[in-house]
């Protein structure tokens, strides 16, 4: 697993969101930077806390012209249920074959309760309008993710 980092070109992608609408990173970049955050599985405790933190911070992110895109290997119907139940106000994208996770270098070996398996590592990328990754968020607790992102954005 070779994770992309600041200065790398972000892989351009088009994925379906929870509303079955195709979302393009290139199009999103037209309006400002994009926070691409990868999470393992919709409706799990950590992923819910992380998503709700971003939901509750969406106005501050919008004020900074930042678009939020959450990516997981979940199918569109599961994303739709998750978004509706948690009243999420940003796009969740379905990467069922984990091709985009592979391209960003976030798909790889994980350990949980003694088991080893392949899955998504919880990482976030801030992609600038030039299509380059301007920051990699790799040290945060799920409940503080939104705060870490906002603190970084306000420093720039």
From TrEMBL:
Q: What is an annotated GO biological process for this record, any one?
A: cellular response to oxidative stress
**SUPFAM superfamilies according to UniProt:** Thioredoxin-like
Asked if the record carries the keyword Membrane, the reply is no
Which keywords belong to this entry?
Answer: Antioxidant, Disulfide bond, Oxidoreductase, Peroxidase, Redox-active center
One GO MF term:
thioredoxin peroxidase activity
Enzymatic reactions: a hydroperoxide + [thioredoxin]-dithiol = an alcohol + [thioredoxin]-disulfide + H2O
As recorded in UniProt, its EC number(s) are: 1.11.1.24
Q: Where are the transmembrane segments?
A: none
Q: Any idea where the Thioredoxin domain is?
A: 4-156
- Any one GO CC term of the record: cytoplasm
Q: InterPro entries given for it?
A: AhpC/TSA (IPR000866), Peroxiredoxin_BCP/PrxQ (IPR050924), Thioredoxin-like_sf (IPR036249), Thioredoxin_domain (IPR013766)
Q: Which Pfam families match?
A: AhpC-TSA (PF00578)
Q: Which PROSITE patterns match?
A: THIOREDOXIN_2
Family that this chain belongs to: Belongs to the peroxiredoxin family. BCP/PrxQ subfamily.
| Subunit structure comment from the entry | Monomer.
Under NCBIfam families, the record lists:
PRK09437.1 (NF006960)
Q: What does this protein do?
A: Thiol-specific peroxidase that catalyzes the reduction of hydrogen peroxide and organic hydroperoxides to water and alcohols, respectively. Plays a role in cell protection against oxidative stress by detoxifying peroxides and as sensor of hydrogen peroxide-mediated signaling events.
**Would you tell me the protein name for this molecule?**
thioredoxin-dependent peroxiredoxin
């Amino acid at each position: 697993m070779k994770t992309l980092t600041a200065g790398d070109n972000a892989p351009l992608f088009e994925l379906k969101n929870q509303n079955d609408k195709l979302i393009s990173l290139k199009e999103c970049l037209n309006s400002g930077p994009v926070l691409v955050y990868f999470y393992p599985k919709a409706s799990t405790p950590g992923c819910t806390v992380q998503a709700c933190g971003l939901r509750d911070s969406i106005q501050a992110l919008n004020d900074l012209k930042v678009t939020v895109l959450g990516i997981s290997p979940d199918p569109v119907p599961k994303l739709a249920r998750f978004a509706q139940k948690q009243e999420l106000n940003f796009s969740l994208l379905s990467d069922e074959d984990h091709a985009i996770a592979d391209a960003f270098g976030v798909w790889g070996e994980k350990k949980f309760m003694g088991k080893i398996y392949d899955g998504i590592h919880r990482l976030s990328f801030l992609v600038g309008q030039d299509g380059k990754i301007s920051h990699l968020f790799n040290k945060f607790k799920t409940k503080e993710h939104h705060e870490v992102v906002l603190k970084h954005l306000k420093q720039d």
